[in-house]
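Why does residue order matter? Because the sequence determines the fold. Keep that principle in mind as you read this record.
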Amino acid sequence: MRFPTLILKNLLRRKTRSSLTTIGISIGIATIVALGALMSGMKSGMEGILKSGEADFSVAQSGVSDLQFSKIAEDRVEEIEALEGVKKAAGAFMTFYPVEGNPYTITWGVNEEDLLMFGVNIVNGSSFSQEYELIIGEVLSKDIGKAVGDKLVLGQEEFNITGVFETGSLYQDRGLALSLRKLQEMEKKEGYVMIVYVELEEGANIEEICHRIEETYPDLVTIKSVVELGKVDKGLEVLDAVNLAVSFLAILIGGIGVTNTMIMSIYERTREIGVLRAVGWRRRRVLSMVLGESMLLCLFSVPVGSLLGFFGVQLLLLHPIVGGLLEPIFTLDTFVRAFVVAFAVGLVGGFYPAYRASKLSPGEALRYE
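Structure:
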């Protein structure tokens, strides 16, 4: 019998125990996959917001824990636009309003002339031109069954839908946009914007201009990529830490479960291990066998846990609040992390039982009752 076949056969001898251990590890893997997909989706959505349309980078208030707390005087928009190398700067306000049962519909306040810079492409109707007009994203339009000519209530006020737009970002296409002045009035923040989008002239040095803005305005911070999201969203840093903590706990708890399973297996097979040692098996081969069983048990958990994580996220998205706010992205990195965690669990959980089995002497093992 080949060595790999023997390892698999040993696991199948105790199907119930092996299955329960696999399920336990799979739950940890599923959690890692689900959190990773949701985190990737949130970061992608935030990147779409911070680098919208034709903008090369964005500017927000420094020191805030969340982008929604950012507050920039509108005068700063004109000052940034006047900087050498800057082609255009546009301020925007963003918040969330309940729309047709979803309390977290992203709502933009922008000037009509800046819509193109934000990457807004009107696919039906026209842009807003009056105070009580708005445009809605293509995805939102389908979700709530509203089209051009319909009315939509935001807060306590009623608006006419004049157009349907698409940006290519699912996060933004689930939202709506209206006049910047009107949204400022509704939020009682006249004269302020939340974020400033900056488009540079061809050949301009983005690093130099960003440094100049931050040096000239110490209360502002520039965001050029998703790596810099932590400057304006500490919540994502917390979620990253939670994701790391969950991975560590999965290794710890899974490792304990695997250790328990393998130790029980060794106790039951003590005489068998003694026979193998008596017929010439070296300690290293016994160690490899037990450690191989542990690793294989954990690697079986990767596809099972990945499927559980995928379907778990899909079930979560059925909730209108979650589905309207998050769009998960399953990346290769997420599954690689799941594989690494499973590998670590197998290594951590299987090492001690394997070492213990390798130390059994043939005589002692054969006398074991």
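The two ends are 27 Å apart (CA to CA).
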